[in-house]
Design goal:
By secondary structure, this protein is of the alpha+beta class. It contains five helices and seven strands; from the N terminus they run E-E-H-E-E-E-E-E-H-H-H-H. Helix 2 packs parallel to helix 3.
């Protein structure tokens, strides 16, 4: 159990995911400077109640992810742009609101060890769904994603697949909370089935509108 500065956001961070942030509030300038001085991460947690900025400290969900600062761009008036990288899942046990920024007593919350014989088939089922999803996204709007360059490690694949989904933060939080990597793979597979059908409907609707426009002209 350790104490960790927390940054409540309307964003769900997964291990391995880059997250750029613009730091402009004095409380978060202080937090980031401390993390840089001590070479420590902070926790990114989805807001449960409250707002990101310029108000009382928000109440976060209990499961989040540590963020390691990997790049800093200083700006005027002490503001800065930082790039962070998600590292480890965390679970909050208690919160301290006595500092300008939120601090939590947390424990790291890795997935339990699992038999690769269970994970590898689940990952194998997910890969073509992720590839199909990326191809459909490219039909709607070009995205900088390579469907043929997905991680071979099942846990890394599951986390990347969750990151890629274009869905509300609350739904991503449910994926982050998964009790195991196998659960995450299974849940993500189900979501991809739904989202692929949704993207197909969007594309077909666009084609129908285009054909109707051509017919009218």
């Amino acid at each position: 159990m350790i104490e960790l500065p927390l940054f409540p956001l309307h964003t769900v961070l997964f291990p391995g995911m880059p997250l750029p942030l613009h730091i402009f509030e004095s409380r978060y300038k202080q937090m980031v400077e401390l993390c840089l001085e001590e070479d420590n991460p902070f926790g990114v947690v989805l807001i449960h109640r409250g707002s990101e900025a310029l108000g009382p400290l928000a109440e976060p969900h209990s499961i989040g992810c540590t963020a390691r600062i990997i790049e800093v761009q200083p700006l005027k008036e002490g503001r800065m742009n930082i790039t962070t990288l998600g590292e480890r899942r965390l679970r909050i046990h208690s919160l301290n609101y006595n500092l300008p920024y939120l601090v939590g007593k947390v424990e790291f919350y890795p997935f339990p060890a699992e038999d690769p014989e269970n994970l590898i088939p689940a990952a194998g089922r997910l890969v073509p769904k992720v590839q199909q999803y990326i191809h459909l996204l490219n039909e709607i709007e070009e995205v900088d994603l390579d469907p043929d360059n997905l991680p071979e490690d099942p846990v890394m694949l599951a986390q990347l697949a969750a990151v890629l989904l274009q869905m509300p933060p609350g739904e991503k939080q449910e994926l982050l909370k998964s009790a195991s990597a196998l659960d995450l793979l299974a849940s993500t597979y189900q979501v991809y089935n739904r989202e692929i059908a949704f993207l197909r409907a969007i594309i077909e609707h666009g084609k129908d509108e285009q054909q109707s426009h051509i017919a009218q002209n």
